[in-house]
C-alpha cells in the first residue's frame, strides 16, 4: 500500500492501528488510502486537494474518542471535518493525515420548548437545524449562505456570524452547552440548558472559535428564539457614507430589538449585481450607497406600520436619496437577492479571491477607498468590490485580476495589501471565517504577542503531542 506517512509516524504501525479501528467502528467508518472520498481531501479554500491517509467517520462521541486515541497511539495528525465549507483551510488535511469527518454524527436529539433549546449532533447541517426549530414553532437565528452544506459543529468551530448578528449575536451567543472530545480521547459532557450557570470557568468558550485545534465538538445545546411573527424590510439608497451611519444609528434607536439585519453595498458591488449578475434593482439611478434594512416583529398589524413610520420619519429628515419598502414576502426576497448575488460572482467575474474582515463602523468607507486604491496601485489591473454586515462591523470584499485563473490570481500580494490595510485601521483579519492556514501568517496583525503566546500555552496544555489540526491558527 503506497501511502504518505507523516514524519514521526511508522507506516506499518499506522496501518495496523487504523485496521484495528476499522474492526472496532465498522468498515463504513474507516476508509483508508484509495478509498478516501474526494470530498474529504479539501475544504472550499483555493488550496489544492491533498492525500490523507484515511478518513474516519464515527457516529457518536465514543467513536470520536476511539479515533483520537488510535491516532495518538500511531502519532498520526488528525483534522476534524464538518461540512467542509470553510474558506481558510481549517478543515483541509495535509498529506498523510487522518480526516475525522462528522458527516455521520447527525440528528436532532431533543427540542425542549420550555427551555427554548435544541440538543443536536455536531455534523447536522445548519439548514436541518433551522428546519427542526421551525417545525417546533421556534427559531434558530444563525444563518449563512452555505446553510444547506455547512455543519453546525463547523459553524461553532469558526464562531460563524452570518446575516443577523446585529440582533442575535455570533454563534457563541447561541450556545448553552457542549459535549467535546479532547485530543487524548477524553469525553467532556456539559450539555447545560440554563441561561445562568456561573459554576466555575465557562469551558465551552475555549472550543467555540478554536477551529478544531483544542478538541472536537460532538453535541451542542443551542439557544432558540420565538418564531418571528412578521418581517419588514426596505432597500434604501443614500448619498454618502455619513448618511449610512446616520441610518444605522436611527435604525438602532427607532427599531430597537426589532432590527435584525443592516446590509450595506458599495456602488462597485451594486454595479456588478445589477448590471452583470442581472438582479433587478428596486430603486432607480446611481447612488453613493445601498442599504438593506430588515426588522423582525411579532404582530404585522402593529410592527408593519411602525417600521413604515420609522422609515418615513428618517426620509422626512432628508437622509434618503430613495427607498423601496417591501409590500410582500416576495419583495423581501428580491431585496435579499441583491445582497446574496455574491454567490454568482464566479459566473460573472471569473476566478476571484474573497475576504472577510472587521473594522470600526466609522472606518469602513475609508478602509474600502484606501484598500481599493492600494490594490490597483500595487497589482496592475486588480479590481475589487465591497459589501457587508456593517451593523456588526463586518466588511466582505472580493478582489481579482480579470483574465487570470484562480491559480494565477496574485493572492499572496492581495493578502499583503488587504491585511496590511486592515492593520493600519486597527481592525481584524477575520470577522467570521476563521484563520486556518490561509490567514495564519497575518494573525499578528490582529492579535498581540501576549495573546498569541497564551493561545500557544492553551494548545500545549490540551494537545501536548500537537496532533489535533497541527499548524492551524497559531
How does this model look, in words?
Pfam families: FAD-oxidase_C, FAD_binding_4. Belongs to the FAD-binding oxidoreductase/transferase type 4 family. This protein has 474 residues and is α+β, with helices and mostly antiparallel strands. It folds into four domains: 11-104, Uridine Diphospho-n-acetylenolpyruvylglucosamine Reductase, domain 2 (2-Layer Sandwich); 108-226, Uridine Diphospho-n-acetylenolpyruvylglucosamine Reductase, domain 3 (2-Layer Sandwich), CATH 3.30.465; 230-342, Alpha-Beta Plaits; 352-451, Alpha-Beta Plaits, CATH 3.30.70.2740. It has 14 helices and 18 strands. The strands form four sheets. It has a seven-stranded antiparallel beta sheet, with helices on both faces. A five-stranded antiparallel beta sheet has the order 5-6-10-8-9. The protein has a four-stranded mixed beta sheet with strand order 1-2-4-3, with helices on one face. A hairpin with a 5-residue loop joins strand 8 (175-181) and strand 9 (187-190). Helix 1 (11-25) runs antiparallel to helix 2 (61-73) and helix 12 runs antiparallel to helix 13. It is globular and about 75 Å long.
Strand order of the biggest β-sheet: 15-12-14-13-17-18-16
Number of strands: 18
What's the CATH C level of the largest domain? Alpha Beta
CATH architecture of the largest domain: 2-Layer Sandwich
Shape estimate: globular
Rg for CA atoms = 23 Å
Main beta sheet: 7 strands, antiparallel
Overall pLDDT: 96
In the residues, how many domains can be counted?
4
Strand content: 15-25%
What class would the helix/strand composition place it in?
alpha+beta
CATH topology of the largest domain: Uridine Diphospho-n-acetylenolpyruvylglucosamine Reductase, domain 3
Level of helix content? Answer: 25-40%
Low-confidence stretches: none
- Distance separating the two termini: 34 Å
Q: What is the number of helices?
A: 14
Domain FAD-binding PCMH-type: 48-227
Keywords: FAD, Flavoprotein, Oxidoreductase
Cofactor: FAD
Protein name: FAD/FMN-containing dehydrogenase
